[in-house]
Each structure stands twice: as C-alpha cells, then as structure tokens.
Amino acid sequence: MEISTDTLFSTLSNEIRLRCLMLLHHQGELCVCELTHALHMSQPMISRHLALLRDTGLVNDRRAGRWVYYSINAALSDWVKQIFVITAKANKNQPPFADDLEALMTMPDRAETAGCG
Fold it and tell me: 36, 72, 111, 114: which is deepest, by most CB within 10 A?
C-alpha cells in the first residue's frame, strides 16, 4: 500500500498516534482498551486517533464481538515499515514509549481476557 511521505510524517507528528503505532509495532495487535490503559487516556481520544490511522491506511482494524482490535497494515510499503522498525528500536527504552509498554505489560487481567474484558 502506498502512502505519501507528507501523509506519513504528518500522521506521525502527533504523539498519541506515534505512541499507538509503537505499541502496535511491539505487540502486533491490540484492543482499544489495552491502548487506553497503556497511554492513560480516554477511549474516545484513543479511538479518534486510531480512526485517523485507519483512514490513512497505516493500521487495520477487526471487530471481535464488542471489541475492536488494531494492527499495523501488513500491506504498507517496505520504506514505511522500516521507519517503524528504526523508530521503535531507537526509542524502546525512552519515555514515553518504555512507560507505555510497561503499563501494557502490567495491565491487570490482560492475559485472562486475551485483550479486553
């Protein structure tokens, strides 16, 4: 899938969207409730940013019952995927990215509910 350079960097310039993408890069697929927990933000705020990521083609969503799960679009161009890899690697131990991942990993009941509960 082709995305313009302007669209990509404009989308990534927002901290919330970048943090969501970095968590998705590390985890593969996440439910909205996992992202709200990790980023300590409201569901409407996270959903609004995820909708923009979906509309630009950076992420895909799938519905499972009442839950919506997001993942990075596997059809993205290699150059876009490389930007995600490099950004994630360079920032994985830096705040807020390390804090987000820590919050996600310590989310109560996450394993038992396979996402949201």
Answer: 72
How far apart (Å, rounded) are the C-alpha atoms in residues 11 and 17?
Answer: 7
Query: What's the whole-model pTM score?
Result: 0.92
Domains of the chain: 5-105 (1.10.10.10)
69: enclosing H helix or E strand: strand 67-72
* Strand-pair partners of 69: 31, 62
> Tens of pLDDT along 79-106?
999 999 999 999 999 999 999 999 999 9
Q: Which amino acid is at 12?
A: L
Copy the structure tokens of residue 18.
Answer: 């970048």
Hey, what are 75's tokens?
């059809």
